Amino acid sequence: MSFAHAAFLLLIIPWAICVYWRCRRRDRQRRVVGTLAIWRLVAQTTAGQIKRRKLPLELILEAALGLILILLLAAPEWRETESPQVLVLVDSGSAMQTPERAEQLATWLEELEAEHQIPIEVRYWPERSDSSICATDAVLWADQLKSLQTPNRRVYLAADAILDLDQIPEAVGIKVIEAEFANLGITSLEFEHGSDALKVHVGLSRSSSWREQEASVLVAAAKSGAVLVRESLPDFKGSRLLTLTLKTPLPEALQLTLEGATGPKFDDRVDFASPGSDRRYAVVDFPGQAAWLAALKACGRDGERFSSGARGTTDWVVIAAASDEAGPGPGIFLGGPIVGAGFRLQVDDDLKSATLMAQAEGPLAGVVGLEELDSKSGNYFLVTEGQLEVLAQRAGRAVILFDRAEQRIYLADAESRADWAESVAFPLLVKEFVEILTPGSNQQPAQSIRCSSVAESQGGAAAASASRPALAVDNREISRSFWLELAALGLLVQGILLFQRRKELRRRESSPAY
Amino acid sequence: MPATIFDAATRRAIKAMRLHFGRSLAADGGSTLRSQRVGHGGEFHEHRDYLQGDDPRHIDWNLYGRMGELYVKRFRSEADLELRILVDDSESMALGESSKRVLALRLAATLATLLQPMARDLDFRILTEDALPLAEPNSKGLASEALFAALEALEPGQTACDLNLARSFMPTQRNRLVFLISDFLDDSQDLSRLLASRSARTDLVLVAVMAAEELEFDAVGLLDFIDAETGEQLVLAVNQTLIDEYRRQMAKRLELLEGLAAKHAASFVLIPSHLSLVDAFERVMRRGGLGR
To answer: Which positions in chain B touch A32 (Cβ < 8 Å)?
Structure first.
């Protein structure tokens, strides 16, 4: 049994004192007498006849009521059937998957198991197969960890140091498997179209232990590897936005890479399509927390808490597409990190239905009559049996779909190549934030397309580690306000009754003795 | 501060009693107080059985010749008396719904007021370690008002009663009438020694003022008894069995006190504190064998 508000158990101490005091005094009436001699004689004479007075029922009930009220205030939770658990949440980002860190992790897990003497559950988060979109977002980590915590479960986190560990709740025993050379990573991308150039705003973040003075960011053609632009990184602390200017036209596929000057080459790389100026979609004002909550509600995921990005920024990938043309067209899969896989949204000739296609595996979803779709209504519609829902359409065609099973958003991008390797991902996208532009027009999005990468840089592995004490911190909200109020009221009433009783006793005692 | 002991009604009652009692004594033929102690000289009063320790000179040998049994003669001696009134004003006297202390002080003052004209001397004392003479032994005519004021000014419960202290007033070569007003809750051995110490010329009237609650205790439950004088505590779960036993013990104690008094030719008068002053005075006079 555990208690949600164990601090209230401290009330047991004054309660015990009160009960002891009441047992001692009970409702004794004071009687002042001229001499005790006669009463002593009476006591001696009747020693065998005086029955030891048992605790009065009233006192027993009163003490029991007090104890129950205190326990109610402490909000007990019975978890007798659950054995203690140890859960290790492992950052599944690429930086954690180097052989060195994997070895460190394995060693540490063995030590942890030996320490706790119970099997340890290990979970990767996000799933190992995913791109670690949130790997750099400690706020999301914190939310995830909070959701995993129970009074009976100790949660450890194994992550690399690029996480802002201060955001992690202290209840989590944090195991930091930190890079020897610290980390430098790409955290966001933002495109800005000019007349003859494309400005790429690259968000960079470095860990506090970063000492590498010479590093550079380069953009190269994905296929040929030809370097289009290279920019040396200035020395900076924390985060910095770096702008690269690319002259158009550009290759269709680009790679953004971080490179060290002398040390090992970083494998932090972002692949992205060359964003044409004639894109017909954009995403603006990517949601803040409130919008996220609304979106999650719309998707039936009430109660989940997500952050809209690290500390309120909107460094999320949003790329969408729309097509006026019927027939098969290329699409991009923005929700999953299946490297090398491509998707397309198959729009039927009659423009009545659409199918999300995986390039290699065929259709993923069924067909639905698009006439049913209406983005203006704000509702989404089922595309297949409970799997896909259309969140937005243009010209009668689905352009944004939500895969309920995978909790992913699919967007159709007519202009993207079918084999465009995914590089960006996001957990959810809500149509309100997608601005559909007129195809072929010069309409500019209200705000630049923003892109963020979750790719992590990594240096050589090292055994630097740190851990925080695993303190039991209860993150549960007070969900029993009614019972709490009831218990508080009960205590108040009991206090008043006790006061009244004392008053009555005093009144009696103050009356003439005998 | 308004008088609480000697209020107007009490004063009126005392005044009325003085008038009535004065006439009564006058009609009785004497202005002097008669005592019933056995003495030589004075008016024959009665015979009583001879008790061990009685002076053989008082044995009525004529009666022995006729009856074959020893009797002693008792006389009403003309009381060229010293009057002493000793009042216990200890903590225990303040108890009782009808305060024992109030009645005791009123009664003592009444006795002093009414009997003083018939006594040669009056000595009025609160019985404490520092016995406070409210009137010098030889002073004549202590004014009632002065006595009332002095008694009224007494702080209740400021003294501790010790019957041993009263013993110093018992030996005397002169005829002396002593009223000892107390609740007599002290050790009966003290009383026994007190009685034994008195001289043959001392008439002693023990006036036991008891609260009704002391005589007829009836509270039940868990009671925390506190000794008014020592502060000692005794917790008892009082039921009817204990109440019955208490009453039995109290009755036994009263019998003991009465027996002790009789044994030493003293008078014992029990005055429940709820009695009126007039009733209390009359009971003292009647049971104490004073006046006719």
So the answer is: 95, 225-228
